[in-house]
Design brief:
The complex is a heterodimer of chains A (581) and B (327). Chain A is an alpha+beta fold. Chain A contains 14 helices and 25 strands. In chain A, the strands form five sheets. In chain A, strands 8, 18, 19, 20, 21, 22, 23, 24 and 25 form a nine-stranded mixed β-sheet that branches. The radius of gyration of chain A is 27 Å and the shape is globular. Chain B contains six helices and 15 strands. Classes of the chains: A alpha+beta (581), B alpha/beta (327). Chains A and B meet through strand 1, helix 3 and helix 5 of A and strand 5 and helix 6 of B.
């Protein structure tokens, strides 16, 4: 007998319900509005009154309307078919909705129940298994999608029977497991999992050991993000946050990409729908959409579902991680999610924290970021969830609570900067303010030593130093004038400009420059550092300026040419000649 | 909004503030319209039997024994071709002396567009203004905010854009326009002979500020009708969003809600589905619902075009945060 209730109060999408039985925090309920069922989630209980946040508009709801509690938290269905889907924050399949407008109370099934999948068993009758162990595999696109023992299973089980290889739909019982108590349970290809709970079922969560290649120089070389790492991009408006994020999504070295568009403009999501199916994944040569799941709760969709959308996205990533895959989660933007939290907190008349955000904002954010990470699965294989969130600080103020809290939680910081964007130095990632804590990890340094070359981290730090020194010199030149400073100041400044123009800046709209593999980054950085190591004898600053401009120009032409092509080599020789002067 | 044969009339108000009244009215539904002493009001909060109504025209002179009747439905707009060339107030009533519009009743602030059904904006709307066309191109299905100081001629620019843009319908949502500005728009449209493609919903400064809260929803309901039902290219101009946000904070303040440092509600003012948010999400929301939609062969493109006078753009607490630059 499930708990029922009656609506007693409504403030926007916060509804108070008088309940007649037990309710759980975060339990779901349906509010009956003249036959339309509105999904809502319990966020507070006081006595027999439950406060629920409704994921839809509460228009026309009235006191006395009946409420039915479902006895479960917000869950997602996990199974083959998640990839290349487009969901809303509650995992409704948006592609199967017929109407142009989203109707209230219209919920669609996230997975296709009729499609047949080629199942190949990996476990055999008699095997001992625990939650998250692999029972079999289907091919989802080109990815091996493991069918696992549901994460909710506690204790160990014995496989009683498993179906032979063949085509089955997701509802077919593919295995029967016997629990320690001797009871049989059926396992299908689908399982449900509450989004707010992290999926465990792995052996350990070590520190990240590898970097995730994105093909963006300012990230991979200057501030690399680790596989299983966390990073964030605070983007004042018009700084190229979306372009950078799309570049990471397109080029990121990951098996599965989940993009959560949380409270952002719908047209940005539309860009993904239109572009991704046509784009080719540079790592596998397959269509990008085949490895991408999009969760969108755009700015005009109900606010309460924003929170759900980021959790849904994270849960899907964790599911794929448990298969030993490398997942990348991009959430744009977590500020909108925080704003949704703020609205709710204020409607509940909680005491506000800084800027009226809930006081536990920082804890919520760091908890969420902590769900990312690299894990070692029970069978020794590894999987990873890399998370990059964007933050939209109001007025470009990086001291506001969401940015501050995120800074504490994330290990990489890509400071997009208005100033740099105005100067058209794209990607507008400030090389001095940005950081990657992963460069300090001995594991990562070791990885870079073997993957790129010995002493790579030192070289990167040296390049960063050149950029910082150049900025100082520029300040001095601005104060004292071109003639008021020694020649070495000009030289240091132009060396930093060299690093900036030839390495940090990258053209996201150029087919060749957009994607710069690590091998090429190594070559370019070595070349540039070699130039920076030389000392030049300039007669005056004009000569210094024009010389470096020539060098920069040639290096940029190299960036635009196919690596090691004739063109590229031509420019390289041109550069060598310049350097001999 | 027709009166019914039998209607329950409430005559005891529990509380009155400058913008809201509260009374015991069991069975009132959220967002529903009502009249309080003949003035239009909307349910914004229900707590047990106690219902809080936001009175659009302000509560001056409302006694505690004022008559309150409920309509049983949220605000609606009658949509049809007859809307073209007409001027309406924030309630959708004609203010140009013409007859009432006949047509299908549509709820304003209805559901949002399924993002999957949108198309990528790629068609330029030429405005003939070099600064816009060359540097910050207006693309159909996209939304662009204008930032302007109060001394800038932003309404003139808007009118220019409206008249030069190659679109089938132009919907003007005027929030807190001064009467002179309202007449300016009217004359500009009349003189250009473009009146038949313009629909205006105007709230002037002479009218109560809270009425403004209905304006963008009315304008967008009309825009959605022309774009989705009639397959026309629509340009929506909303001016000015700062005054809209002010109206939100007035109601919020009267409901003794927490305010941020600048007086803007942190809590939303439940006026309608799209505006049930604090100003920022609210601003975003009212701008978003229209875009080019997929399943038609025709181009449909309502482009909301709000004007926001600049309140110190870099101030993090400024109540209208600088929204998107483009798209």
């Amino acid at each position: 007998m499930s708990t029922k209730g009656k609506v007693t109060g409504i403030v926007s999408n916060l509804v108070t319900v008088q309940v007649d039985g037990p309710v759980a925090e975060n339990e779901l309920c349906y509010i009956d509005l003249k036959g339309t069922k509105l999904l809502a989630e319990v966020i507070k209980v006081t006595g027999d009154k439950a406060s629920v946040q409704v994921f839809e508009s509460t228009r026309s709801l009235k006191g006395g309307d009946s409420v039915e509690f479902l006895g479960r938290m917000l869950e997602v269905s996990l199974g083959p078919g998640l990839l290349s889907s487009v969901y809303d924050g509650l995992q409704n399949d948006l592609t199967t909705m017929s109407d142009v407008f989203l109707k209230r109370g219209e919920y669609t099934d996230p997975l296709d129940h009729t499609k047949l999948w080629d199942f190949v068993p990996e476990a055999a009758a008699g095997d001992k298994v625990v939650a998250a162990d692999w029972l079999g595999e289907v091919k989802e696109g080109w990815l091996p999608h493991k069918i696992m023992v549901p994460f909710s299973f506690k204790g160990s089980y014995t496989v009683k029977s498993i179906v032979p290889a063949g085509q089955y739909n997701i509802d077919t019982v593919v295995a029967v497991l016997t629990g320690e108590d001797g009871e049989d349970v059926n396992v299908t290809m689908v399982q449900k999992w509450p989004v707010k709970v992290a999926i465990k079922g792995y052996k350990e969560k070590p520190r990240p050991q590898k970097i995730m290649e994105t093909g963006v120089r300012v990230i991979d070389t200057f501030n690399p993000i680790a596989e299983g790492g966390t990073g964030f991009i605070p983007g004042p408006f018009g700084c190229g946050k979306t372009v950078l994020q799309h570049a990471i999504a397109k080029q990121g070295e990951a098996d599965v990409i989940v993009m959560a568009a949380c409270g952002e403009r719908a047209n940005e999501v539309v860009e993904i729908f239109t572009e991704f199916p046509e784009l080719i994944d540079p790592h596998t040569g397959r269509h990008l959409m085949e490895r991408t799941t999009i969760i969108c709760n755009t700015s005009n969709m109900p606010v309460a579902a924003r929170e759900a959308s980021v959790y849904t996205a994270m849960t899907i990533c964790e599911y794929y991680r448990a298969m030993g895959l490398r997942c990348l989660l991009l959430a744009d933007s977590t500020s909108r999610w925080a704003q949704a939290l703020r609205e709710m907190s204020n409607r509940m008349e909680e005491l506000p924290g800084a800027d009226a955000f809930p006081v536990d904002l920082s804890a919520i954010i760091s908890n969420f970021y902590a769900r990312a990470g690299m894990v070692v699965l029970n069978n020794g294989k590894t999987g990873a969830v890399t998370f990059i969130g964007t933050v939209s600080p109001a007025g470009g103020n990086l001291k506001e609570p969401v940015t501050e809290s995120t800074k504490k939680a994330a290990r990489c910081f890509y400071a997009l900067e208005q100033n740099r964007a105005d100067q058209k130095r794209y990607p507008a990632v400030n090389p001095i303010d940005s950081y990657s804590k992963y460069l300090e990890y001995p594991e990562i340094a070791e990885f870079l030593d073997s993957k790129i070359e010995k002493g790579w981290v030192e070289k990167v730090n040296k390049a960063k130093f050149i950029v910082r020194k150049g900025k100082e010199m520029n300040d001095q030149i601005n104060i004292l004038g071109d003639d008021g400073v020694p020649m070495s100041y000009h030289e240091a400044f132009w060396k930093s400009e060299l690093v900036d123009f030839a390495f940090l800046q990258q053209d996201a709209f150029d087919a060749i420059d957009a994607l710069c593999p690590l091998e090429r980054q190594k070559f370019m950085l070595n070349l540039i550092m070699d130039i920076c190591d030389r000392s030049f004898e300039f007669e005056d600053y004009e000569q210094c300026r024009s010389y470096f401009k020539q060098v920069i120009n040639v290096l940029r032409q190299m960036n635009y040419s196919e690596f090691e092509s004739d063109n590229f080599n031509g420019y390289y020789n041109q550069l060598l000649k310049l350097l001999e002067k | 909004m027709a009166t019914k044969a039998y209607q329950k009339i409430y005559t005891h108000l529990e509380a009155i503030t400058k913008a809201t009244v509260s009374l015991k009215a069991p069975g009132a539904s959220n967002d529903e319209l009502a009249t309080v002493a003949g003035r239009l009001a909307q349910v914004v909060k229900t707590k047990g039997d106690l219902v809080t109504l936001q009175v659009f025209a302000g509560t001056e002179g409302i006694p505690t024994d004022a008559e309150v009747t409920f309509f049983g439905e949220p605000p609606v707009l009658k949509v049809s071709d007859q809307l073209s060339g007409r001027f309406f107030n924030a309630y959708g009533k004609p203010i140009d002396g013409g007859p009432e519009v006949e047509g299908e009743e549509r709820q304003v602030g209805g559901p949002s567009v399924n993002p999957y059904k949108r198309m990528q904006p790629d068609q330029l709307i030429p405005t003939g203004i070099a600064g816009i066309d060359l540097n910050n191109t207006l693309v159909s299905g996209q939304k662009i905010p204008f930032f302007a100081d109060p001394d800038q001629p932003y309404n003139q620019v808007m009118a220019d854009v409206a008249l030069r843009a190659d679109v089938d319908k132009i919907i003007l949502g005027g929030m807190g326009l001064s009467n002179d500005d309202y007449l300016f728009f009217r004359h500009a449209f009349e003189n250009a002979g473009a009146l038949d493609k313009i629909v205006s919903f105007v709230n002037t400064t002479e009218e109560p500020p809270v009425e403004r809260l209905l304006t963008p929803d009315m304008a967008l309901a009309a825009a959605e009708y022309f774009a989705v039902d009639e397959n026309e290219k629509v340009l929506v101009l909303l001016t000015d969003m700062t005054l809209y946000a002010d109206a939100l904070s007035i109601v919020s303040n009267r409901m003794t809600r927490f305010l941020r440092r600048t007086p803007c509600p942190v809590r939303s003012i439940p006026t309608s589905q799209r505006s049930t948010r604090r100003p920022f999400s609210c601003l975003r929301a009212v701008r978003s619902p229209s875009s080019r939609l997929l399943p038609s062969t025709m181009e449909i493109s309502p482009t909301p075009f709000p004007i926001t006078p600049d309140t110190s753009p870099r101030d993090s607490c400024s109540c209208v945060p600088i929204p998107t630059r483009a798209r």
